[in-house]
Amino acid sequence: MTTYAFRLLNVFAESTFGGNPLCVFEDARGMDDATMQALALQFNLSETTFILPSEQASARVRIFTTGYEMRFAGHPTLGTAHVVRDLARTGDALTLEFAAGVVPVTAQADAWTFTAPHRGKPKTAPAGLPDADMASLLGLREQDLLMPPMWVDTGADQLLVPVRSVDAVRRANPDSARLGIWPQSSLGRKTAYVFAFDPEQPGRVLSRYFFTKQGGGVAEDPGTGSACANLGGWLLATGHALPAACAIDQGEAVGRPCRLRLAVDAEGAIRVGGRVLEIGRGTVTV
Q: I want to staple 125 with a disulfide (CB 3.0 to 4.6 A). Which of 46, 57, 142, 151 is the partner?
């Protein structure tokens, strides 16, 4: 039997019980893939991360959902960086190695920012479903769409659905009875990042992120850093003026308010940030 230490954190949190929860295992040496997957299922959070040594970064990180491993994800990046800084005494600038590549991360106190692992123009693709059908899957009307939905990949491909109003974001209600026709990502995931720019608050965006659950049904993620990075990719792909910056509110509908900060510089580098709060520590013996 081996004992492993873990930490619990809330990422993109503006208050103690806001943000997106994350479990980080401090040293995963000796764990096999099955154990990591089992621990992720045991904690039953959207993601659990496992820190390992790296020859090319401050640490190597593996990310598991309750059902599979991910190449990259946003809130696990920031939360894990917070732990690595404390364990390795790296200071406020460090790098993390993921399957998707090496990601630079910086901090100012408990506010962390990562640079998305992409180069040049982001990968994009059509949604693969007519606009009217895609809107209907989300409980919306075709006229609610600002532009056709598209897949965007700046580290993990997700379906971005721009709508005309924050009211449409709030009205979104995915139809779990029609998941069979929902477009799939390159990893077989069925997701939708629904967002709108708030005309009453320039520089503010309201978003919601839906994904299909293991075993069926649709769940909603409180704060999705990789999708926020893909929003930066969407700005690049649609010819938005650069540099660009905005604050994204997410998690309102699930009682876990999150604040994400997005910046895209004139060269197209995409940065996503938010606060990280540690709320607990413990050990697991397996």
A: 151
Count CB atoms within 10 A of the CB of residue 230: 32
Please indicate whether residue 69 is annotated as part of the active site.
Answer: no
Residues 221 and 101 in one domain: no
CB atoms within 10 A of CB 88: 12
Instruction: Give me the pLDDT at residue 117, please.
Output: 86
φ/ψ of 274, rounded to 5, equals 175, 170
Residues 52-99: tens digit of each pLDDT:
999 999 999 999 999 889 989 999 999 999 999 999 999 999 999 999
Q: Rounded to whole angstroms, how far apart are CA atoms 20 and 10?
A: 5
- Residue partners of 55: CB distance under 8 A and separation at least 6: none
List helix spans (H) across 174-249. Answer: 225-237
Domain assignment of residue 281, yes or no: yes
pLDDT tens-place string over residues 99-146: 989 999 999 999 999 999 887 789 999 999 999 999 999 999 999 999
- Give 127-182 as a DSSP string: -SS-HHHHHHHTT--GGGBSS--EEEESSS-EEEEEBS-HHHHHH----GGGGGGS
In this structure, the chain runs to a length of 286
How far is C-alpha 118 from the chain's CA centre? 15
- Rounded CA-CA distance 7/225 in Å is 20
Q: How many domains does the chain have?
A: 2
Catalytic residue selected from 14, 47, 69, 97? 47
Using the structure block, give the residue that is written with the tokens 């905005």: 246
Q: Containing domain of residue 88, as a range?
A: 3-113+274-285
